[in-house]
Amino acid sequence: QTDLGPMCSARQLAVVLSYIDKGVQEGATLVAGGSARPSGLLTGFYIQPTIFANVDNSMTIAREEIFGPVLCIIPYQSEAEAIAIANDTDFGLSAAVWAGSQQEAVHIGRSIRAGQVFINGGEFSYQAPFGGYKQSGNGREWGEEGLSEFIECKALMI
Question: Nearest to residue 30, comparing CAs of 5, 67, 59?
Fold first, then answer.
């Protein structure tokens, strides 16, 4: 069983497949998935969940927003290095942190420049603001913060 649906269009499927090919070309190790159609799914814009190992942060698959089921495993030696790797990108829509305690994960999550950070398996919520940092967009949708997009503030100076 899975919760992973198809890509939204043939174009997005082609984009994600091109990133998978680029990952292989740049020397990442394909651990699971790949560009072959998932077995049993003969129609639709389905793609296999794909995992790459031996990825470094200079590779395209680590630097760009793929918007498909592609995961890059990047090794690190310290918490500070992991945070530096996570922040070394032009994008910052979403991140996830897994740590030994919620307190430790929250500390790391606060250090990552992303609009939302999932802590130790936290789930998506429409009550929370949604939006990114850097080139992942400005503004927020959903939650109370999303309403501010429709409000004009005025200051009266007397």
Answer: 59
* Dihedral sign for Cα atoms in the order 89, 93, 98, 101: positive
Average pLDDT, the chain: 90
- State pTM to two decimals: 0.81
**Residue-level pLDDT at 56:** 93
The separation between the first and the last C-alpha atoms of the chain, rounded to the nearest angstrom, is 64
Residue 132's CB is within 10 A of a number of other CB atoms, namely 19
Which residues, other chains included, contact 90 with Cβ-Cβ below 8 Å and sequence gap of 6+? 63, 134, 135
d(CA 79, CA 125): 27
User: Is-contact 45 9, C-beta < 8 A?
Assistant: yes
Amino acid sitting at position 43: T
The pLDDT of residue 140 is above 80: no
Pick the closest to residue 97 from 89, 88, 113 (CA basis): 113
Rounded alpha-carbon distances, angstroms, from residue 58 to 2, 76, 115: 31, 14, 22
**In which band, very low, low, confident or very high, does the pLDDT at 158 lie, cut at 50, 70 and 90?**
low
| Contact present, 102 and 121 (Cβ < 8 Å) | no
